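Sample pair:
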Amino acid sequence: PSNALESVTKCEAIFNRMRLAFSSGKNKSCGPDHFTLSSIMAVLANSKQNGIGSLAIRMLEQTRALKGVNKSSGLKIDTVLYNSVLRVVAMDGDTDAERAHAFMKTIPHRDRISFTSVISAYQHEGSCEGAEKAVALYREMQRSEDPGMQPDGITLECTIRAILSGSDADAAPAKIASLVGEATSRSIVSSRHYNLTLLACSDAAPCEHVLRVASEAFERAKAEPDLTDHTFGLFILFLRKHGPDNDPRRSKLILAVFQHAAKDGLVSPFVFHSLKKSVPFATIRKVLLMDDANNSYKGAIPQDWRRNCKPRSSPNRHASSTPTMIATIP
């Protein structure tokens, strides 16, 4: 956008004025410091413009080349600053993930954020090779003896998304289930990781192993304190794709999942639309006591179905834009 590009241009101009004033000796008090560079990197990252990665690295190198800037402005080029530059490089549309990976290797003391940024870059790359490298970085973090290097929930999610965007669809469920299963003992897994597992299972070809992975992910997600409506909607869509066609047992199971969501107060537009896609209309009308005249629920919507009316944030691509109960069928 023009405003974002203008912000980048102005930041670069201000940085150059500070740098030139300091290097010429006219004003030794205005050399770039940690706050200056961190603020500029935030602007660059938020701009999402192409070419910001090269600009971020150039600014860092130009700052390091200023003699005496460390003493005059107290500049300390530490891991935090390196990571802010790495984030910009990883978000640059003109930069492939390999460049972000290469820059990370130049950071003297890499940490969890460093690795997660590069894994995220491989996620956005969306290639099979990128997915493999994302998993390799995740494994490298696991092998580290430094507690600060161990993967957290965000790292795990980025790795799962890299697999979803790059791996073969039929192989993805097993890979993701393995990562999530290992992470459960470290208490970094939440319902969103199980939701991504369900998403991978839905994209895979039907088979007994995929059914087992999806069923386990659904059961584990229900036990998580951050359980949302998306778990139920995704599992309903999975059952729709993987259940035998015209099998009454499939409809019965899907309705049972829907009624569980209703019991927990987690019926949302996404859950309800998933149900409509998966079960014949006549069955829905019969089980949910719908009025033929206006296709609406008979009587008031039960209050305990409304618990999900507060806005919910979710990393899921199927997130409902209006998380409230649907009262009618369009």
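Residues 198 and 214 are 5 Å apart (CA to CA).
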